[in-house]
Amino acid sequence: MHLVLCHTTADFDCLGAAVGIARLRPGSRIVLAGGAHPTVQRFLALHRDEYPLMERRSVNFEHVQSLTVVDAAYRDRFGPISDWIDRAADSNLPISRFDHHLGSAGDIPTQHRYVDAVGAATTLVVEQLQASQIEPTAAEATVMALGIHVDTGSLTYEQATARDAQALAWLMAFGASQRAIADFVEPVLSPQLQDLFSLAMDSLEGETLEGYLLSRVTLAVEEYVPGLSSLAERLMSWSDSDLLLVGAYYPHTHENHKLTLIGRVRGRLADRAQHLDRGE
Predict the structure, then answer these.
(1) How far apart are CA 245 and CA 209, in angstroms?
(2) Domains assigned to the chain
């Protein structure tokens, strides 16, 4: 059996890519490491049975022959199933990776890597489906289109490429539901936030501590900017960070500035933070 592993707090790009990979490898099963973004949860509540998802507690690893990890480069992003990656490596099972985060060398030993500068990991999977002449169902096309829309801001983000647009057009030809896309794609960042997003990506600093990617960025703005929490969410996803601090400062008086500080944490690091908060 081939397993496709989605990182903790899976987003649409991760899920969409995983669904496409399952078509590339017939008989594959998709395992969510732990949790999903709220919109993904809402989508799966309606459409889960249309995809080859498998509960992690149902996996007998003795039957696993290969793995593919999606949209992440570090073991810890896979939370409670990260030990499967270690077991696969120890048993010399083939491990593949589809990702669009070029700056993440990662710590997962892979035999096959599909990593390139596109707006969404799903785009890389779509290109493999095209090369293999595999036609997706409408349900598969829909979730893959959602992955590209969400990670490229419906092709408005600076990181979006012509390859993402071509992949979306191909998925539309196979019945990607525009109604579902309208229902589940979150509002695109405003032009002001898009400019700040590009600036933040260029200025983002990070370091890895105990396997966790800790990132930070400080932005100088002319005045208070509404919607910075949405910016932080997009940065969290794009940077593949486990913890993120976003600071934005602007003039308040002639001599003083105000600082808006937003923090985000996810996955196993969020669990650790909760334990520390309770004094455990």
Answers:
(1) 15
(2) 2-184 (3.90.1640.10), 191-277 (3.10.310.20)
